[in-house]
Amino acid sequence: MLIVYGGLFFAMFFRIFGIQASGQVEGQALAAKAAAKYERSKVITANRGNILDRQGQVIAEDTINYRLVAVISPKASEGTKTLMHVADKEKTAKILAKYLSISEKDIFDKLNTKVKNAQGNEIRQVEFGAAGRNISHGVMEQISSEKLPGIIFMEETKRFYPNGIFASNLIGLAQRDTQQDGQTKTVGKMGLESIYNKELSGTDGRVQYKSDVWGYLLPNSNKMVEPAKDGADVYLTIDKTIQNFLEDSMSKVYKKYNPESMVAVVANPKTGEILAVSQRPTYNPQDGTGLENSWLNQLTELTIEPGSTMKTFTLAAAVEEDKWFPNATFQSGQYTVLDRTIRDSNQVGWGSISYLEGIQRSSNVGMAHLLKLMGDDTFISYMKKFGFGEKTGIDLPNEATGQILDKYPINRVTTTYGQGSTVTPIQLIQAVSAIANDGKMMQPYVIEKIVNPNTKKIVKENTPTIKGQPISEKTAKEVRKILASTIYSEKGTGQNFASKEYEVAGKTGTAQIPKASGGYYWGKNEFLYSFLGMAPADDPQLVMYIAVEKPKLGPTDVGSEPTSTVFNTVMGSSLKYLNIKPQKIKKTKSQTMENLKGQLVEDVEKEFEENGIETVIIGNGDKITDQYPAEKSEVLSGGFVFLKTDGDSVVPDFTDWSLRNVLTYQTMAGANIEINGEGYVQKQSVKAGTVLNANKKIILKMKKPEEIYK
């Protein structure tokens, strides 16, 4: 017996010694098995970052809600005097039916789920699908007050959009998703929520500790905590107040005119910041209503034929190239390019009209003549300078480029008035910023900054970026005056956009919509009506583009009514909100020339000065013998009128005169002028006020706008 027990003792001794030395039993690591059994780990979920407007007001944030779970296994109540499972299923089903969007019968059937499933595994608890999820704190408290045994609540976070329909196609949405590890997490699905999902999501933390087999923390065990890093907060350039103005107006017009689609954007032309953007149809990110009809972000992903809003840039190119002669005339109605003929909107035109009247009436033929004056290559080069045909670089994905058609002569002609070639709304906003911002074209952007909430440090910040300078400051100011005349002139197509408090400048557009099978739709309710405008005209603080596709117009409605309703409401309210002082609007921005021959110079000069028109007097007589422009021509405020009288003339101050004005003076005064350079006069060889001598040469040195404003 001594030998037997002694042998067993030594066998056990060597076994224990071997286990201690190797740490393994039958090839399995004991430390790993112990860790798996007694070490516990719990995920600390990081809070998703907020999306906020430029003032720090919340647009999207996480909120706490609850998921209802019913414990049905009687084993949960073993070893305790308190019921921990649903014992009275009929009572429980009856009470829960008062709070959940599910019938009492369905709840009762769910509570009667067999304790074991088909695989023989025990089912301890059941849930109630969508009806038992996203329960608010208030409803949770009401159900809890019923004191139903076995009914418990699991706390969860859900993305909350407090403003409902609010720049939805820009903001996007985020939803709960089940990850590969079985955990649920909020994930961005569309828009900025998806684009900046990584930044918004943050990094989950973790708690590791040792416990017994029942999960209780063991005495003296080390507890290690790796804290969660919350997601970054994304601040937008969007202004919540201006966005609300836009959403409200868009909804009213959409309801009244029932168009196929609408898109509108408001921006700061001095910085490129997008202050508001909306489209219809749209969706509510809170519940997904309307999502099936509104996936596309029309601001950057929609390409359109812009119609007459494109004339803004054709005009700017002509002015910059000194090919804009407002008082010269052309025959409106139709224009033939090789074997193709284009026509004005009324098909017959308005007879022989000035170029100024042509832009006011939105004459397609007038644009074709401007193209001829500029030259095709020059015109196309300006379209590229304005950024058409390439991405703006806005901080949003999937931006479309559009296409400027220039292969054939007819393509270049139709592009001058916005047909055939395509652009995006954001390209129009970028391009018009050059008109509104004294020649400097600003790159648009929607993200102001991204802030780390854990350190309060700015991890990304956008600042205004000048994308280019397609035109000079002088040209921009002149174009704004001309565009204002399209609204305040009796012949202007934009009269519906006139404001009583702020002078508006802009251009209407009526574009034909191409058919998938070829050709274009035609008819009052088949066009894309738009407006590209700014205010106040002398120093624009806001630019806005609004387009309405195929509105259902009434018998007496015109196409500009839906667009002007949105523009006037949003622009006026936004300027007041920004504390821009209202102006006293002058109703007349141009003057029709009369036959001035025989009238007193002093009286005529005074009248023109009151209307902001500069007069150039040739001679020192009292009465007018000749004039330019001729009778019935229109003169824009800020323009020139040449009045000839008898007697000696004096040399004027030619500074900043255009070539056209110099040649007009030369012809009427009989002056001997030599011109060096192109563009606008910067120096003259004979001092202003000197008596004009036809035998003495006056040398004028001119510079191009890009040289003057370099």
Number of domains: 4
Radius of gyration over alpha carbons?
A: 37 Å
Which descriptor suits the 3D outline? elongated
Supply the helix-strand structural class: alpha+beta
Q: What amount of the residues lies in strands? A: 15-25%
Given as residue ranges, the uncertain stretches (5+ residues, pLDDT < 50) are 27-36
Biggest sheet descriptor: 7 strands, mixed
What is the CATH topology of the largest domain? Beta-lactamase
State mean pLDDT (0 to 100 scale).
Answer: 88
Number of helices: 21
* CATH class value of the largest domain: Alpha Beta
- Tell me the name of the CATH homologous superfamily of the largest domain: DD-peptidase/beta-lactamase superfamily
Proper CATH architecture of the largest domain: 3-Layer(aba) Sandwich
Number of strands: 33
| Terminal-residue CA separation | 112 Å
Helix content: 25-40%
Walk me through this protein's architecture.
The structure is a single chain. With 710 residues, this protein is an alpha+beta fold. It folds into four domains: 39 residues, no CATH class; 146 residues, Alpha-Beta Plaits; 338 residues, DD-peptidase/beta-lactamase superfamily (Beta-lactamase, 3-Layer(aba) Sandwich), CATH 3.40.710.10; 119 residues, 2-Layer Sandwich (Trypsin Inhibitor V, Chain A), CATH 3.30.10.20. Helix content is 29%, strand content 23%. It contains 21 helices and 33 strands. Strands 4, 5, 6, 7, 12, 20 and 21 form a seven-stranded mixed beta sheet that branches. It is elongated. About 1% of the residues have low confidence.
